[in-house]
Amino acid sequence: MKNKIIDGTKISQKIYQDIKTEAYLLNKKHAITPCLVAVLVGDNPASHVYVRMKEKRAKELGFISKKIFLDSTITTQKLLDVIAQLNNDNSVHGILVQLPLPNHIDSFKVIESINPKKDVDCFHPQNIGKLLIGEKQNFYPCTPFGVIKLLEYSNIETTGKNIVILGRSNIVGKPMFALLSQQGRFADATVTLCHSKTKNIKEFTQKADIIIAAVGKANFLTEDMVKDDVVIIDVGINRVNDFTQERGYSLVGDVDFKNIFHKAALMTPVPGGVGPMTIAILMQNTLRAAKLLAYDTLL
Ligand code: NAP
User: Fold this and answer.
1) At 40, phi and psi to the nearest 5?
2) DSSP letters along 45-89, please?
């Protein structure tokens, strides 16, 4: 039987191989080691887990990885001061402010204050604006570009395809839309962006050749909502109670994987699909940020 699983872990390993080679050459030629600084505000447990995962990967690649922990009561201004210091520090190449920030902090102001050349998450309005108008740029947003790489490495053509994206967040849905609606290979699609106010989502998903789910609800996409031979990319990460696990929960995506599997042509699993790709692209962006210091422009 044809293998229907798109293995994000395996594909991310290929990306890491290229990163290692390029990082080695950068160090040899310019004595630069990529340095990623993560800024964490407060003690959101999930944020700490994500930052630890990123740090572990950065270290495995031989990057310098630093963390700055700030109290949840910090003011926006104090946080802006921390970022200004990192912007001015030439030994820091990538700055990552782990979201979400506490409610009293002006997240937009914080993101806007990051030097776009160090914006390895690609959240800065300048970088996102370039993405929308199809301008070449230094960084691409980690999760959406990770999805594009999954499609590319799996030889899933998107030209002329009907692609439905479920979810319109600034982190996933909207940049995903921007990437897939550009001209070019692994783009050139007819893209529909659905959200909580979309009426009768099923009408859209049933016609989709490719569905990208980023809603944040376990089992949101069900068997009756998809056509035969659909390709499904599941971005969702949801905790569901699972007392067979020591920790009392398992992680699942937004897709009813078990019941859709027989219908789909290809699917990503959760975990092991989009998640590893998000981190791989973050590392690729960090390497690019370090290269920017050596070459000023990569375009
Ligand atoms: P988000 O900011 O909460 O956005 C969720 C989106 O889903 C919103 O646009 C919302 O619509 C839409 N939505 C919610 N309920 C809906 C419904 N019943 N019908 C249709 N649309 C609905 O979430 P996010 O940050 O994009 O993340 C989405 C999921 O991906 C989460 O599970 C998150 O953990 C996961 N994630 C995974 C990765 C990874 O690396 N694998 C990275 C980022 C996020 P409205 O805009 O109308 O409210």
Assistant:
1) -120, 125
2) HHHHHHHHHHHHHHHHTT-EEEEEEE-TT--HHHHHHHHHHHHH-
Question: What distance in angstroms lies between residue 214's CA and the mean position of ligand 1's atoms?
Answer: 5
Active site residues: 54, 98, 121
Longest dimension (CA), the chain: 58
- The total of other beta-carbon atoms located within 10 Å of residue 246's CB is 6
State which of 107, 164, 217, 235 you would mutate to test the pocket of ligand 1, scoring each by most atoms of that ligand within 8 A of its C-beta: 235
Radius of gyration of the chain (CA): 19
Stated length of the chain: 299
In whole angstroms, what is the distance from residue 67 CA to residue 47 CA?
12
For the stretch 24-60, pLDDT in tens is 999 999 999 999 999 999 999 989 999 999 999 999 9
Q: Nearest C-alpha to atom 41 of ligand 1 is from which residue?
A: 275
User: Per-residue pLDDT for 166 more than 70?
Assistant: yes
How many CB atoms neighbour CB 258 within 10 A? 9
Protein residue closest via CA to atom 36 of ligand 1: 236
Contact 213, 235 (CB under 8 A): yes
Q: List C-alpha distances in Å: 106 to 67, 74, 110, 117.
A: 21, 11, 6, 21
Residue whose CA lies nearest to ligand 1 atom number 4: 169
| DSSP conformation class of 185 | T
Residues with CB under 6 A from ligand 1: 143, 166-169, 171-173, 194-198, 201, 214-217, 235-238, 274-275, 278
Nearest to 145 by CA among 122, 125, 119, 165: 122
| Structural contact between residues 198 and 246, judged by C-beta atoms closer than 8 angstroms | no
pLDDT in tens, 223-245: 999 999 999 999 999 999 999 99
